[in-house]
Amino acid sequence: MLKRLDWLLWLLAIIVVSRLFSMAIVPLLDTTEARYAEVARIMAESGDWITPWFNYGTPFWGKPPLSFWTEAISFKLFGVTEFAARLPSWLANLGMLGLIYHLTKKLADQRQALIATLIFSTMALSYIMSGAVLTDPFLALGTTLTLASIILALRQPGSHWRWWIFVGLAIGLLAKGPLALVLSGGPLLLWVIWRRQYRDLLQLPWGRGVLLTALLSLPWYIVAELKTPGFINYFIIGEHFLRFVDPGWSGDLYGSAHDKPYGTIWLYWLWASLPWGPIVAIMAVYRWTSAGSSRPAGRRWLTDEQRLLLLSALFPSLFFTFAGNILWTYQLPALIPLAILAAMLMAKPVPASRFNQLGIALATMLMPLALILIGCYAYLYPEKLNTEKMLVAHYNEFKDNSSRPLTYIGKPPFSARFYSNGSVKTAPFSEVERLIDNSTEATHFIAINNEEREQIISSLSAQVKVELANRRFTLLKIDRLTN
Q1: How high is the pLDDT of residue 456?
Q2: Peptide bond into 58 cis (omega under 30)
């Protein structure tokens, strides 16, 4: 038994560490990852730890600062790199794994605890998010801490876990906002209705706990509103109400709405939970049909804790069913309780066969191997990705003292801003000729959209050389003609 647990532990360690590989070699990709990394870079550069900035003149009201704080600190410690930008999410994932392990071990045993962490680590969304520059890992860390603490506090009355409930809520509020309260409180409310009992919840320190959450989170909200008035209205009303009730919401200041058909969130659950979601569903049906007649009378199919886990796994899908402006990352908090339930479901193995064993082994390694292969492809062919890393690096290599800063015709991608340390310029197409004629620099480097390349090159009277082309843009070196 010990050797088997050691084997599971080593497998878990290999899977978790394997994510570091692609974190280090894959460039930051547009749009979301590069955008959030640039916000954190500006925070580290400016020293403004209150207001995240979308660019040097525009505050970023779309998200609270927790993820940006951690990424900016990482930049300060390790330099402005892709790995440093992604490291905080990896550490947040470690925190979730620790909570999954501890909670499952208390509810079941060490073997099931290791299996739960393995399942969560190898789901599609959780494996990707464990090394991506996004806010969702920190939201999931907060909701996981709250969920685990509620269960453990009820099992161990008077323990320190009763306070961690409210620390988890504060983490969620600083990571994503009031959505954390909904994702944590919604399953709890449904759980009370399902079990028809709430008296044990009254032993929790709700009054002092809410005060603790407020003390940890509200000061930033107040200071942020005072520093950039209008933040509360945009963030609470816009981001947390209009974004979800209006599928085509046009008030997004920093991107575009994601207009999806109602119910798409369930399809996202399937994608996010791959390959384990379908496996768990099939196993659950098998258990129900095979054990229904043999289960002793009066014995419940689920314990109280398992009911809460099930509701927590389903609630994001239920809540976002009639929302059109959604992303698949919204399912990340649901994968933690799903992984724990899956491990408990596997406590009594499925019928032993080589086919079943091979299927489970393949499911465990599918996502890590797939992402490692994708990472190798990205390293070998970066020009095929939505990133400006190589283009900016080429400019930095060949520019000289007589060169003007790199200029993008139109809006520069976030990755161009990040890799140029914010120095990239922008200009409309109509201004290119005037920009060149009126400048004192002899050499210009201009990045143009590939679809407009021939039109722009033919319109220029200067000497033009194509330096580099990637998936979206072409870098031109333009030497101004002199008499």
Answers
A1: 81
A2: no
